Amino acid sequence: MNTATHVTIVLGTRPEIIKLSPVIRACEREGVPFTLVHTGQHYSESLDSVFFDQLELPEPDYQLDVGSGSHGEQTGAMLAEIERVILDVEPDLVLVQGDTNSVLAGALAASKLPVEIGHVEAGLRSFDREMPEETNRVLADHVADYLFAPTETSADYLRDEGLDNERIHVTGNTVVDAVQRHSDFAAEKSAVLKGFELEPDEFILLTAHRAENVDDRDRFADLLDGVARAASALDREVVYPIHPRGRQRLDEFDLMVPDCVRLVDPQDYLDFLELERAASVILTDSGGVQEEACILGVPCVTLRDNTERPETIDVGANRLVGVDSDAIRDGAVEMYERTTGWENPFGDGTASEQILTAVCERSTDDQQVSQ
Ligand code: UD1
Ligand code: UDP
Questions:
Q1: Sheet hosting strand 93-97, strand order edge to edge
Q2: What atom of ligand 2 comes closest to residue 210's alpha carbon?
């Protein structure tokens, strides 16, 4: 592999840390020089440093400490800081992953400077512009030079938007690389089931943190009601590792949490993988959790009106039910009874290697041209 390319990797939230960890390790393994920039979008230990420790990632070279704020405040502050870093480091390429405000800021900052951009997890579309994530991912794709699409479906969306086929690389999703590396280890090492006194297949796992669900009192209440109905129909308790946004809204809206729902702190990666693996059904509005459930062979019910991961539905691993309480109950029962064994549509666990190879090969081409 040509190691002349210098890559600046920008990340800022829990899913970016997890999904970029295989790329960071691949850079280390292959000797590709890189600079790690943490925007500080996530900063609580349970969303941030716990993953750096567990995934054995190096300390960020730049910690921007931007923190929380409105979309404009947060993205604007990151944009200014990331620009400063790029001017300082002068990398060949800036790599971003996913659809958060950190991704938008990284991609926009790089787009005005003489540096290439790689977007990992390109081409996902919910076709719902009310979601901030949709704006972020569309804009990042349209300024990127390398579009690392996880599947042919996402590559087709990019082509439909007129993006140059030469920029598109179908690599699979780096989440597969992360799950493959950590799931056996999680099964061996994690004591989370014992700690929570849970038996495999005796509980439902819930995550709900999306702004469109938890920032709306009525939607959040409907969602919790539906989860309680699902728990009653399946005669199982619910474990809900709650993201700080959800926790804050519960308090602010003074919502009653049903007795069958056990609220717990956000879990570290190994413990969360173990909870996913052992759950009867997973109810979620998370993107990454939909993918991991599919990869681990655990039935999933998505508490949203749309998904940018249609592959999970196509293979039979996921059902979209929104937040209507009857639909959540019916979806959970249907998925619990579904035969598992579907195919994983997100690749073979070599996405991070393929991403790095594409980036480094392009730089070889450039050098040959200039010689
Ligand atoms: C962000 C992403 C979302 C992603 C999620 C992953 C955007 C627009 N949203 O949502 O796509 O699914 O991360 O988890 O980028 N907070 C803390 N501690 C933290 C971070 C946040 O307590 O470390 C609280 C703050 O009160 C903050 C709120 O959570 O206002 C929301 O944080 P923010 O980063 O704006 O969005 P997320 O909901 O985390
Ligand atoms: N996750 C975790 N602990 C938790 C909840 C989630 O480690 O308590 C991991 C999960 O395994 C997945 C990622 O966080 O890899 C998903 O992140 P999140 O749901 O915050 O964001 P999204 O994928 O929706 O953007």
A1: 62-63, 34-38, 7-11, 93-97, 116-120, 146-149, 168-170
A2: 24
Q: SS3 of 52, please?
A: helix
In the structure encoding, which two tokens stand for residue 284, read together? 């979620």
Question: What confidence tens digit (pLDDT) does each residue in 275-302 have?
Answer: 999 999 999 999 999 999 999 999 999 9
CA distance 115 to 353: 21
CATH-assigned architecture of domain 184-337: 3-Layer(aba) Sandwich (3.40)
Site residues for ligand 2, CB cut-off 6 Å: 14-15, 18, 207, 241, 266-267, 269, 272, 286-289, 292
Q: Are 170 and 351 in contact (CB under 8 A)?
A: no
Q: Which atom of ligand 1 is nearest to the CA of 100?
A: 15
Show me where the domains of the chain are located. 7-173+347-370, 184-337
Among 11, 13, 14, 185, name the best residue to mutate to test ligand 2's pocket (greatest count of ligand atoms within 8 A of Cβ).
14
Main-chain dihedrals φ then ψ at residue 208, nearest 5 degrees: -150, 115
Angle at 295 between CA 293 and CA 297, to 5 degrees: 65
Q: pTM for this structure? A: 0.97
Cα(348) to centroid(ligand 1), Å: 30
Q: pLDDT tens digits, residue range 49-108?
A: 999 999 999 999 999 999 999 999 999 999 999 999 999 999 999 999 999 999 999 999
Sequence-ordered alpha helix ranges (H) in the chain? 14-30, 49-54, 71-89, 101-111, 132-143, 152-160, 174-189, 192-195, 211-214, 217-234, 244-253, 269-278, 287-296, 310-314, 325-337, 351-370
pLDDT of 364 > 50? The answer is yes
Q: Annotated active-site positions, please?
A: 209
Q: Do domains 7-173+347-370 and 184-337 have the same CATH topology?
A: yes
Structure tokens at 100: 């958060």
Reading the block at residue 329, the tokens are 């109950």
Torsion of CA 143, 146, 150, 152, to 10 degrees: 90
Query: What's the CATH fold of domain 7-173+347-370?
Result: Rossmann fold (3.40.50)
Rounded CA gap, 240 and 257, in Å? Answer: 10
Rounded distance between C-alpha atoms, residue 262 and residue 10, angstroms: 35
